[in-house]
Specification:
5-stranded mixed sheet; Nucleotidyltransferase, domain 5; Arc Repressor Mutant, subunit A; 3 domains; single chain
């Protein structure tokens, strides 16, 4: 299994130490900005002269800039450092019905967003995306673009970087990365949507002490991203975590993957709409999932029953995750988390029933509704910052947090 290493090791003593320590300093600035050189040295365990050299290099490369000047009771007033917000990333959340294209700065703040329909033709989607991206770049000549990050409801082969499994998009194998790179001249990084949400938790969330985490995304389909022993698991062909396409009932409804009775057909947004239709709530062409949630909030008993059935199915399917991976925490991403106070306890009870020994994992909804887009920001920045954990521990006996 090829894995991104999110763990921390000792400072390297080889000729690669400069690059490794550069990543350490850059990540400390990212997490603790604004921060002085003295504090960088104290927290990292690096010598002040080393920190100063790295800081000057990062300033010359336009990754960081000078921030405010500090105040001390005596002595020289420190100049703080922060990330350069002129560094920008274009991020894309590609879904079966619509695609969101956003512009973000290096801190994950979103400067603009726009939505376009998703085409069933992958080449047409690539062309339309590229046109939007080129237009965004022209509209912001003052920004330095680091690259493009794309999350999608499918899997990307680690070796070929081609999209190889998209049951809800119904795409054939396709080189989306190459198509957009050729059309825009920017580097493109692709990632499964659930894995992108894992990156969002690690980079922008609060999982400093969590080494085993699973993110479950619930939308048109159902996906899982696995962060185990401090690393993002990918598996052969990047398919690790496809619990949504594990059959729970061989006689169940047909799934978009071609199988029957997969977890996804019982626990996705589409499943809830099917439950509602089957109960006589509406004919075909009835409410959208957003409208179904609004009906439940207004007290519609059929909508409540459909979402309750969906929640039970989500929890029961998580038995696979609890028994097979035993994570410390499970984070749910999806529009349905808007009704967490009503349906969260249903899922928690189902998860608790699947625990073999000890306490169940912590279960919570993701913060906000931008997990996929934030994850693609981290996806692009990994090349400079490294795939680090969310927080860097204080050094002990000269040990600092770096990435391999």
């Amino acid at each position: 299994m090829r894995r991104n290493n999110f763990t921390n090791t000792q400072v390297a003593s080889s000729e690669t130490a400069r690059d490794i320590n550069r990543g350490v300093v850059l990540n400390l600035i990212r997490r603790r900005q604004p921060i002085s050189r003295a504090d960088l040295a104290r927290i990292s365990g690096l010598q002040r002269s080393t920190v100063s050299l790295i800081a000057e290099q990062l300033i010359n490369e336009k990754w960081i800039v000078y921030g405010p000047v500090g105040r001390l009771p005596r002595g020289r007033r420190p100049t703080y450092l922060r990330l350069n917000e002129r560094r920008a990333i274009i991020v894309v959340d590609l879904r079966p019905l619509q695609t969101t294209v956003a512009l973000a700065d290096i801190n994950g703040n979103f400067l603009s967003q726009e939505v376009l329909p998703t085409s069933a033709d992958p080449q047409k989607t690539a062309n339309e995306l590229s046109a939007r991206i080129r237009r965004i770049a022209r509209q912001h000549p003052n920004l330095d673009f680091e690259g493009i990050g794309i999350s999608l409801p499918g899997r990307v082969d680690d070796v070929t970087h081609r999209v190889i499994f998209t049951p809800n998009l119904h795409w054939p194998e396709f080189d989306l990365k190459g198509a957009v790179e050729r059309a825009t001249g920017m580097r493109v990084e692709l990632e499964n949507a659930a894995n992108a949400c894992v990156l969002a938790e690690v980079w922008f969330g609060h999982v400093a002490n969590i080494r085993d985490l699973v993110v479950v995304t619930v939308s048109e389909g159902l996906g899982s991203g696995v962060f185990i022993n401090g690393q993002l698991a990918r598996g052969r062909h990047g398919l690790a975590g496809e619990f949504g396409h594990v059959p729970l009932d061989p006689a169940g409804p047909e799934c978009t993957c071609g199988g029957r009775g997969c977890w996804e057909v019982f626990a996705s947004n589409r499943a809830a709409l099917r439950y509602y239709h089957e109960s006589g709530g509406a004919a075909e062409g009835g409410p959208t999932f957003e409208e179904l949630m609004s009906l439940a909030e207004s007290g519609d008993p059929l909508a409540i029953r459909a979402l309750d059935k969906m929640a039970h199915a989500i929890g029961r399917g998580m038995h696979m995750i609890v028994a097979g991976i035993a994570p410390e925490e499970i984070v749910l991403v999806g529009d349905f988390t808007r009704l967490w106070s009503r349906f969260g306890p249903v899922i928690e009870a189902e998860v608790a029933a699947g625990v073999l020994v000890g306490k169940p994992p912590r279960l919570r909804p993701a913060e906000g509704r931008m997990a996929r887009l934030r994850g693609t920001v981290a996806l692009v920045l990994q090349n400079q910052f490294g795939p680090v954990r969310a927080e860097l521990p204080k050094p002990e006996s000269g040990v600092v947090a770096v990435v391999q």
